Amino acid sequence: MTPQILPSGAKLTPFLLEKPAPTGILIVPGGGHGHLAVGHEGADIGAWLNARGYDAWMLEYTIAGAQNPAPIYPRPQNDALEAVAAIRAHNRVGKLGIWGFSAGGHLAAITATEPNIALDFAVLAYPVITLEEPFVNTGSRKNLLDENPDENLLKALSAHLRVSKSTPPTFLFHTGDDSAVAVENALFFYTALRQNGVPAELHIYENGRHGVGLAPDDPILSSWGARLEDWLQKR
Known about the structure:
The chain starts with a strand and ends with a helix. The chain has seven helices and eight strands. The protein has helices spanning about 40-50, 75-90, 100-110, 140-145, 150-155, 185-195, 225-235, and strands at about 5, 10-15, 25-30, 55-60, 95-100, 120-125, 170-175, 200-205.
């Protein structure tokens, strides 16, 4: 389907059912703010959601590179907010959630915790959550905020510190030995959700590399998709 170019220049690609679904999901691929994993964390997710009765949109947000030198903040955040507004302007779905991976998980978490955004749910897969030491993914932070970011900005963009009672129900998936994004990131966000009385579900697998997507070729990790499917049906 024809992508929509947002005012910011970001691209929003739809994955829509023949008839509008009751629920839609904005997909936010990862890539450390330096590239976008638009295959296994993007188009593949759109197809997976369509097969289960959901409309979906994939956001290709601003990343660091020759055309957009680091730091790129706050452009990704603005891209995500524009994407939510654009989807709602189509008036196609009644409920709208967001699903992000890795650095896209950070963007999804920041968006879900934005005041007055009123998303219905969030899914965070091996997400970057904190931008503070010692559990930050330094490459992602450098692309977003450069080498020596202001301490106040680090706190403002550490997603678990933004959680409130209005944060939507959230599903989290991570692996215990993820060497790129420490599992503490998911634990921080889950704990903040619990402290604020927000419904949350967290699945941590003992082993698994970073960036597996739905892990279709892994007989153990691939089960997380089934757990997510069960959870989405309650939303």
